[in-house]
Specification:
By secondary structure, this protein is of the alpha/beta class. The chain has helices spanning about 15-25, 50-60, 80-95, 115-135, 150-160, 175, 185-190, 220-230, 245-265; strands at about 1-5, 30-35, 65-75, 100-105, 140-145, 165-170, 195-200, 200-205, 210, 235-240. The protein has one domain: Divalent-metal-dependent TIM barrel enzymes (TIM Barrel), CATH 3.20.20. Helix content is about 45%, strand content about 20%.
Length: about 270
């Protein structure tokens, strides 16, 4: 299995520092969150020379820039034009730095829209991105998040889009916490389209999510690892930890837990 983490773990680190943190902690990749003020400095405005340099520096350290994580929300017709423009700029950025995946959201949609109308709108947006993404060697990955935590809704969008350059970013936690699905149910529903995976564990206390170490929360990551290994899954499992512990604490510990699951499953 290949592991990465999103720069929300270390938003204060410059790109070289974040790559070194990944290498030192044993990760195979780094997921860049853009448009969030992170110090890595790789954004839409980054010029061609700096993009080439970022790709080279990652290769020199043996740490892939595996995904660009955006804020793009593609289901609401009111913002579709701007969001599609932002997504296309993000596809170009991902292609230039060698990132195979681009994370996008469905996002909320107006109350007056039915679920069917929202599925149709999201299908249109993703379909409009597919040709450009494929030309740049990037897969646009819709995350199981916000109004799109139910795996059945995401799977229906994928069936309608039916393009190689559009897939799913399976956030293991959200279908469990929000949609009430089991890990097995979510995996089996989304399996044909899983191209990127987010992992993190948590518990709900006083109505709010509190991050906890893997194995101490609501999500059966051991089962998720078993399912992905049997698939077999060739992408990255990427840790997403926002406003949590210092990265020096959680990066090595969380990876060690997942590697232990792999060893146990192979025994």
């Amino acid at each position: 299995m290949k592991y990465s983490f999103m720069t929300f773990s270390c938003p204060e680190l410059a790109l070289d520092e974040a790559l070194e943190a990944a290498r030192r902690s044993g990760y195979d990749g780094l997921e860049l969150r853009i448009s969030a003020g992170h110090a890595h400095g790789i954004e839409w405005e980054t010029d061609a020379a700096a993009r080439r340099a970022a790709r080279r520096r990652a290769a020199e350290r043996g740490v892939a820039l595996c995904c660009v994580a955006t804020s793009c929300q593609l289901a609401s017709p009111a913002h579709a034009g701007q969001m599609l423009d932002d997504a296309k700029r993000s596809i170009n950025l991902a292609g230039d730095i060698g990132a195979a995946c681009l994370r996008v959201f469905g996002g909320k949609f107006p109350e007056e829209m039915s679920r069917e109308e929202a599925i149709a709108a999201l299908t249109r947006s993703l379909s409009l991105l597919a040709e450009h993404a494929e030309a740049r060697g990037v897969t646009v990955c819709l995350e199981t998040h916000d109004a799109w935590c139910d795996p059945a809704h995401v799977a229906e969008v994928m069936r309608r889009v039916d393009q190689r350059a559009v897939g799913v970013n399976w956030d293991i936690m959200h279908p469990v916490r929000v949609a009430g699905a089991t890990v097995d149910q979510a995996f089996e529903t989304l399996r044909p389209w899983i191209r990127h995976v987010h992992f993190h564990d948590g518990v709900t206390r006083e109505g709010r999510l509190e991050l906890v170490p893997i194995g101490q929360g609501q999500v059966d990551h051991r089962r998720a690892v078993a399912l992905l290994k049997a698939m077999p899954y060739e992408g990255y499992l990427s840790g997403e930890w926002i406003n949590w512990e210092p990265f020096e604490v959680h990066l090595p510990r969380e990876l060690a837990t997942l590697r232990r699951y792999e060893r146990e499953l192979a025994a």
